[in-house]
DNA sequence: TAATGTATTAACCAAACATTAACATAGAGG
DNA sequence: CCTCTATGTTAATGTTTGGTTAATACATTA
């Protein structure tokens, strides 16, 4: 049976950048519809169903935020990602250039965007559906299989994860590059949020950090008083 | 259903400038009604509902301040922006001319006005709706992510912000180019307005200034006895 | 019941944070 | 120009939060 790809609406006024990003996303197995301004974007949104919208914030005639509001009025569920700072675009472009000759093998900067996209979609689908569709995660050079509770690092013996380790890492991966609130992990994994469970969680964060040391590009950052953020550099 | 744009009443006696500014605002996705003097402005104000009024201060028959008073009597909520010195007009004109052949890509001076308008609108909408999902701000060369609490300057390591630093900078950004009253930050962020919280705030202003030193075009100005103003020069 | 894997709790230290104090400087008004 | 108040700045303090290791408790299975 033919599995259909996830569909992305990409709204970007910079034609050159838009085309490149579209190519890149399509190479990564997404169906992409590109609109070159807010109005066209909204028209296309109304005519089809999408799994994700990527909106440039700075656009003439109708900016990304305004478009997002319109989209929200039509559909309260669809995930929306903003392309904000120039830096991000530049990263993607740079990544594209770097990877152009060998993009299938080398990891490059725009993978951050890709990772975020995947994580967001997965979060959405795990919110609506109780049964988690996906249980495999790429975290830098690591590969996490959260069903078998294995964390693989190429060359090394697979690391067996305990149930708590596994759930916590999975939760972090689900929020890759984004804030994973303390309270979320505590209520979802520990089913209780108090001083002791919180300390317990810290212990597990330390354990995960130890495992993840193998790849210096992978880090669990703390956001004081808020939670943690799994980041994959480069 | 088509969502309607924000509506702006623009009162400007200089026909040429008024038309250009109107065009510029419309290109930025606002609905604009142009009146060419204070009396016409008030008539048009009474006949419709606006999200913002932009009033030229220097006008024959009825100056901007007088008009503003009348408008305020009718409506205590609507944001009012004054066009004061020539400099700003010249900036916009200059910007428009410079950008005329290439305005989609190059940033130009009138973006300050646009920034102000957007900040004002945003403030209004965040007053009414608590679910303001807006947490990314461009401040000169800096990029503030107030959800992850970091301040990025291209080339440097991201600066982690403490909760108070973060909220204060966000508040200043919300009032870009405009007065951010002391009392507002104190009541909203410190939830108390006394001598000590006020001194605490000054300490945080000093901290932010230190961070913002990287970009000489970004400054936090003090307005004696009133508050602070975040400005982005050039 | 020993062995093993797992989770919690304790204890201690380090980092992050907000406040307060102290002193210097700038602005407003007489 | 003088005085009073507001602001700029740095440092000291106390508190909360997080990082880490080890000890303990618990659970599962051999």
From TrEMBL, chains A, B:
The modification 4-aspartylphosphate is found at residue 56. Residues 7-121 form the Response regulatory domain. It holds the Pfam family Response_reg. Residues 134-232 form the OmpR/PhoB-type domain. It comes from the Bacteria. PROSITE patterns: OMPR_PHOB, RESPONSE_REGULATORY. SMART domains: REC (SM00448), Trans_reg_C (SM00862). The keyword Phosphoprotein applies. InterPro entries: CheY-like_superfamily, OmpR/PhoB-type_DNA-bd, Sig_transdc_resp-reg_C-effctor, Sig_transdc_resp-reg_receiver, WalR-like, WH-like_DNA-bd_sf. Keywords: DNA-binding, Phosphoprotein, Two-component regulatory system. PANTHER family: PHOSPHATE REGULON TRANSCRIPTIONAL REGULATORY PROTEIN PHOB, REGULATOR OF RPOS. This is Response regulator transcription factor. It comes from Flavobacterium chungnamense.
């Amino acid at each position: 049976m033919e599995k259909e790809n996830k569909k992305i609406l990409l709204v970007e006024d910079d034609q050159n950048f838009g085309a490149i990003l579209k190519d890149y996303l399509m190479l990564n197995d997404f169906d992409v519809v590109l609109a070159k301004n807010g109005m066209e974007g909204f028209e296309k949104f109304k005519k089809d169903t999408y799994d994700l919208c990527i909106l440039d914030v700075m656009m003439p005639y109708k900016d990304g935020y305004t478009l997002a509001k319109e989209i929200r009025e039509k559909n309260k569920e669809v995930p929306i990602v903003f392309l904000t700072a120039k830096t991000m675009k530049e990263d993607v472009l740079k990544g594209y250039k770097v990877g152009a000759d060998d993009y299938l093998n080398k990891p490059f900067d725009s993978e951050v965007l890709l990772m975020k996209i995947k994580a967001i979609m997965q979060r959405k689908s795990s919110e609506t559906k109780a049964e988690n569709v996906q249980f495999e995660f790429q975290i830098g050079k690591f590969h996490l299989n959260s069903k078998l509770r294995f964390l693989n690092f190429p060359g090394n013996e697979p690391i067996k994860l305990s149930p708590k380790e596994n759930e916590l890492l999975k939760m972090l991966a689900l929020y890759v590059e984004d804030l994973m609130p303390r309270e979320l992990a505590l209520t979802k994994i520990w089913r209780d949020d108090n001083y002791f469970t919180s300390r317990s969680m810290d212990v597990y964060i330390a354990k995960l950090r130890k495992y993840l040391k193998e790849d210096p590009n992978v880090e669990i950052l703390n956001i004081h008083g808020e939670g943690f953020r799994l980041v994959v550099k480069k």
